[in-house]
């Protein structure tokens, strides 16, 4: 077998392995039957910080609604938009299952859309409905996944 064929074969194996892990992620089944995403401590802290920023944004949206301040609602929604998702490391992204990545990026886009829609003049009831849809995605993700740093989890 020539060196070129060996190199191509190794490249195919490497790309295939990367694709497999990019889709599957680094998961196991936890004691509560959710998918436990295996991360190191720093990666787990990063993902949890992003989740906390979602909660801060939701809290700001609710405060803006309470105060009838749609500008504050729009700003709070924008703070959790796609612009905050740029700092994730490629190694972390490989460890996250594809469905988790899709939900997370979709959630960022939903916050951006809520911000844009609020600027366009949707009313409070529409904001509340969109917020319900948005938080339903959070709930469904938390029902399926958990973050873990312990491989026995």
From TrEMBL:
Source superkingdom: Bacteria
Record-level Gene Ontology MF annotations: electron transfer activity; heme binding; iron ion binding
Keyword rRNA-binding recorded: no
Record's keyword annotation contains Transmembrane: yes
GO biological process, one term: electron transport chain
Keyword field: Membrane, Transmembrane, Transmembrane helix
Annotated coiled-coil segments of the chain: none
Transmembrane segments: 6-23
Cleavable signal peptide: none
Classification via InterPro entries: Cyt_c/b562 (IPR010980)
Protein name: Cytochrome C
Organism annotation: Nitrosomonas communis
Organism lineage string: Bacteria, Pseudomonadati, Pseudomonadota, Betaproteobacteria, Nitrosomonadales
